[in-house]
Amino acid sequence: MTTIRLVRGDITRESADAIVNAANSSLLGGGGVDGAIHRRGGPAILAECRRLRAGHYGKGLATGQAVATTGDLDARWVIHTVGPRYSHEEDRSALLASCHRESLRVADELGARTVAFPAVSAGIYGWPIDDAARIAVETVREATTVEEVRFVLFDEKAYDAFARQLD
Ligand code: AR6
User: Fold this and answer.
1) Fewest CB within 10 angstroms: 36, 76, 79, 111, which?
2) 36 CB under 6 A from ligand 1?
């Protein structure tokens, strides 16, 4: 049984076996949590992302998929996943669920026992936080052999949204 915990804070400072990055398809960095992870993790993460792009991921990482690099943080690995942009016209929930499922599949493969997630897609990609929290929590509850999933929420609004899902 996976334990789900909530933490308010900065995921780049989290001690966990793996932290999940809300990346974009390029894998080469960006704003938000992606920028913070690359800044704090230093050049090793970017170098590995470039190697992934030179190899298997020539076209980038597809939305809903996940891939790991080393961490160079208080986490041994960073699992990069690409969330969908929120759309008013189209239901992309399955892709957001896939991000969580695929990240945990990669974590299981690595043997990571504790995995920290940010609120994927709920920042620059515009997903309403209550719905993002619902999809994240529901998917994690179904998905994994990981011992502990920790959602690390940057602000109070996000924390409260996840807390309501766990009630
Ligand atoms: N720790 C924890 N959560 C954070 C941190 C942090 N250090 N910084 C921001 N958040 P976002 P997205 C929260 O925008 O919506 C990038 O440019 C933030 O408050 O980081 O999936 C990528 O390269 C929000 O709740 O990711 C992509 O282009 C959540 O993390 C794009 O943004 C996610 O916000 C991805 O957008």
Assistant:
1) 111
2) yes
